[in-house]
Amino acid sequence: MSTKIAEEIQARAPLSKERVLGTAVALADQGGIEAASMRKIAQELGVVPMALYKHVSGKEELLDGLIDVVVGEIDAPAGDTDWKTAVRERILSARRALLRHPWASKIMESRTTPTPTVLAYMDSMIGTFRAGGFSVDLTHHAMHAMGSRLMGFTQELFNDRSEAEPAVDTEMWTALAGLYPSIFEICQAVSHDDASVVGPGCDDQFEFEFALDLLLDGLEKLRDRS
Amino acid sequence: MSTKIAEEIQARAPLSKERVLGTAVALADQGGIEAASMRKIAQELGVVPMALYKHVSGKEELLDGLIDVVVGEIDAPAGDTDWKTAVRERILSARRALLRHPWASKIMESRTTPTPTVLAYMDSMIGTFRAGGFSVDLTHHAMHAMGSRLMGFTQELFNDRSEAEPAVDTEMWTALAGLYPSIFEICQAVSHDDASVVGPGCDDQFEFEFALDLLLDGLEKLRDRS
DNA sequence: ACCTGAACACCGTTCAAGT
DNA sequence: ACCTGAACACCGTTCAAGT
Prior knowledge:
The structure is a homodimer.
Chain A: H1 2-12, H2 17-31, H3 38-44, H4 59-72, H5 83-100, H6 104-110, H7 116-131, H8 136-146, H9 170-179, H10 181-190, H11 204-225
The first copy, chain A, binds a DNA duplex through loops.
């Protein structure tokens, strides 16, 4: 029976940690973070849930592994430029990785201890600052100031933009204008067309780079001052 | 039977939305976010879980309510100062509220749509920028650049600091030095005492204000340039 | 010795049965 | 008409039973 053989092969398939993480990433990419539960990963692999615990000590280690996959996709630092473009390019690469895996930021936020892969990334980033002439202290503050933006986070409030937003009609629009006039003023400026339809929304990439450059420029000035 | 009477009184106690949110906040303050489950809130109130659904449509609305409680604790904007100290003071007030309720940041990160209370807070903050001479566009960028820091977020990676950290011994310390030399260098500078013990750690308040001022100063320069 | 099915202790929420 | 107990569909993980 070929079915039997197929089952045998599947059963004997190594089921390494890589395979577990790989299917977890695939499931999360496809169905969001809650699609990457222990039970669903096991089901996808044609395996009983407990079988995963041979390759991963538990949910925590699985989440750490998922982060490592994403961090592993960040480009290596460009060695032939100044600190500023090196940091900038690397962070933009991190952002691209995060956009490829929208579930990753939520996991990172939930993590409590950095993995060796993340530590290596941070260490490398610190090294770039130091090589750029930043003192130990200023580098320290710089890393804190960059915060999770180092990992490519947009770190905005309510950055859903997922569910095709429920078509703001004129009634809601005028209500907005009355209740929150300052928000209204900005929304109106962002949407180029007339006020009856909500515009194309914000340019996330522009806003990310704006904030990034604001920080980098500020840090550069602090470096030059000392 | 006084017991019966007590039960009757408790049963007849209004069980308003305020009471539900109040006990939820108390439970979360005391036992973290997972202590504020529907079932545990109901148990604390001596009520069947489903009874909560009379005052709260579901878990989502409960979480929104919890955020509103925290945002409600942020001081009103000081009206008699320049935009910079007004923004600064308000954000530091938000940070204080968040430190009082450490569970709140995780909930805010999980939220997808802002509540009216949060919108009002944002609207007020935008108004402060505008009154400070910022153009509509620059104010827009400023709000994005501030991001969740507006709510008092430290938004750092791995800001646990909760579990009394497991006493870094000399062995780990030298391993750190070898694997992550740049991180080691910074840790060494932060901890004033000798290298055998990890020092007092970072001054979170200082780092928060450092990053905040870096952004505010940069924004001020951009405003003056136009 | 190894693997795994059933069970445990949760969770938010539905729904029909009881008053 | 109102309230609520049991049940549903999940979750991560323990543990003992089966091979």
